Structure formats: structure tokens, C-alpha cells
Amino acid sequence: MKPEATYAVSAGAGLACLVIATLLWTVGNRMLPRVTTVLVMTGVSGLITTWAGEQADGAVGSITKLIDKLTMDKLDAKVSGLIALAAFFVVAVHMWRKQVDWITLAAAALLPLAVRSATGDFGDGLEQLVKGITEFVGSIVGSFTGTGKK
């Protein structure tokens, strides 16, 4: 886990992103599915700084530490970054194929938490990519809702 890594999306902007995504998905009858996916990812990034986000981040961190411990004993390699890679792969492929569904949204929600536990250059690069996307979307939503970083 990288405790120094934080997202510059406020909790208010994150909550606004999740509300907008919920409305687009339910009331809007799955209108703009790609936008909804990015909003879910941004919403979770904003809520990482809250108590619930810290608990979720701790749970994902515990799972990845357990996986790393087991794989280090058996394979002599850490594979916790595979969780982040799998989530990123699901989001990228589903958005490219225009097949956004509940699995895509779940992977988008897991992605900001999972990239924090990915190690090495790949993990850093993936984290910067997710961070850049979520900060951009969070700043737009925050400017419209008045919940951006002060």
C-alpha cells in the first residue's frame, strides 16, 4: 500500500459523482454508460479520504497483503498488482467494446483502491493514469457542484 498516494478529488465531489452516476444508470435507463463508469471511478477516488473509504482501502490492502504473502511463499513473486491490472483490463475492454454493465462499474469502483497496492513501475504508472483521469473529472464536477478542493 502507498499511504502517501492521495487523490485530489474532494469527498463532496466524489459523492456528487456517485449520485450523478446512479441517476444516469437508474433513472436515465443506463444513459451515457462510459461517462457513468468514469464517474464511479472518480466518486470512489473522492471517498477514499473519508472514514468509509479508509475502511475499504484497508480491506483491499489486507487482501493484497495476504495474496502477496501466499504467493511469496509458493511462487516467490508478488501478484497483488494483478488485481489492479484485472480491474483496469475489465474497465478498458468493456468501455472500448461499448459493453458497460454491472461488472464494469464494480471494476471501476475497485480500480482506485487496487492501484494503491500495485508495486513497481507498472503500479506507479497505472496509479498516475487513474489519478489523472479522476482528478480531471473531479475538478469538472467540483466546479459545477461547488464541492471542489479549496
Write structural notes for this entry.
With 150 residues, this protein is mostly helical. It has one domain. The protein has helices at residues 11-25, 33-47, 51-74, 81-96, 102-114, 120-145. Helix 1 packs across helix 6, helix 2 packs across helix 6 and helix 4 (81-96) runs antiparallel to helix 5 (102-114). The longest helix is centred in the last third of the chain and has 26 residues, at 120-145. It is globular and about 50 Å long. The two termini are 27 Å apart. The model is unreliable at 1-5 (pLDDT under 50).
Termini Cα gap: 27 Å
Query: Helix share of residues?
Result: over 70%
Question: What pattern of helices and strands is seen along the backbone?
Answer: HHHHHH
* Strand residues, percent: under 5%
Compute the number of helices.
6
Stretches where pLDDT is under 50 for at least 5 consecutive residues are 1-5
Number of folding domains?
A: 1
Beta strands, count? 0
Largest sheet: none
Average pLDDT for all residues: 82
